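Input set for joint prediction.
Command: fold jointly, output tokens.
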Amino acid sequence: MANILVVDDEKWIVELLETALVENGHSVMTANDGIEAFEIFLRSNFDIIVTDISMPKENGIAFVEKVFDSGANVPVIVISGGMITPSSELTLEHAQEIPIVHWTLKKPFSPFELSKIIDTVNRYKHGING
Amino acid sequence: MKIFLKLNQIEQYISLLEENAIISKTDTEGVIKFANQRFCDISGYSEAELVGKNHRVVNSGIHPKSFFTQMWSTISSGKIWVGEICNRAKNNNLYWVSSTIVPIFDEQGKIEQYISIRHEITEKKLLDEQLFRLRRLESVGRMTSGIAHDFNNILTIMLGHIEVANFLAEELPAKEGQEILDNLQEATKAGWRSAELIKKMLMYCRQESNLNAKLPLVNLENAIFEALKMIKSIMAGVVIKTEIEKPIFIHTDETELTQMLLNLCVNACDAMNHKGVLTVALDFHESKSSCYCSACAEPFAGQFARITIQDDGEGIDEKIMSRIFDPFFTTKDVHKGTGLGLSVVSGLVHKFSGHITVESKKGVGTRFSILLPIMQ
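tokens >
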């Protein structure tokens, strides 16, 4: 089972995903913005990060870029409900360009769907790490 | 000598004015007594066709009645009226003029005629309108995208909890459990229907750009025939004609291309009340001078694969033309259309860096042209 960091500014989504993932035997920590998420990330070891893009204080892409720059090889699943502004670069396509982003998921999605993706990513991670 | 020069200057001024301005003279009822050559040129009417007619002959029907009431109230009270008017030429084309109407008094101080001096400002008005539409589309796009984003969050929460409830209901005794499961299934269906609607809204905002950078090469001719095959059953009374100049291949998403064609064909079919001729054409189009996109109002030029969908239906009213690509704008009856059809087409066309144009004549029909760039 995996140690997962779930980041979303929508508290109900965080609660829902936390409940579903804990139910599936994962260990979960949560954050509501990129800054808080990076602080938690530095204090713990995570197997997988699940993060939203559009968030206050610091967006998900900036957070994932910081994680990548730190040298950590943590697979990231990026979730998004669509951009806020049409000209914005806060897109799933943009997120995919960051090497540690393994999966992107458009909202709405079901916790079951996310669980399946987490299992796949987790298997992949353990596969490459022996 | 001095006087002669002044008169000469005045003649020059008048001659310049005659050449460049649209000048007319009417009586107090608005009946044209004089029309200069420029007026004839721009309106397409001969002097004989204009003189003796009421100035309403060039009325475009665009302005409300109150516009002319205010104009007449100003000039009939002896004041000069200055404003911008949209007129209609003999060939039905609209043109805009900046107009100054001056009342002329007789010796008793009574108004005996009106002289109107106009300058054509059609191009300026079109640019103003394009700028206005660009700004409006931008704000509509921002609003739509914001709503879609929030709704996707809400739907994630809603559908997630329904899924959790599903698992719980499965553990209940069969009879009551099944009843709850049936209700949850309906709620799930409604949730995903809403998600589909939001997906369409996001397509309008050009946000759903394809995640695969490399799109397959698609034979547009095949794509057109496939789309027509799909809609044949709902177009029983419509004669479908295809005009394919030559096969054209472009990199695009065939599913989304089909979606565009279906939306336009269904609209065409509705506009013809399901009887008439629908012509779908494909050709190579090179636009050397800048054309303007009817949806985003931006100029474009270059080489394009052009797919044209033409109907001989009732045509689109000029008054609503600028709004047809807006999300949720519809002329269809309640429950017969979401108002997202054309906005989705616009979103998809722009996603492929293309543009769309529309030409329509009341009572004659409408032609939509999708222009997809051909990469060298």
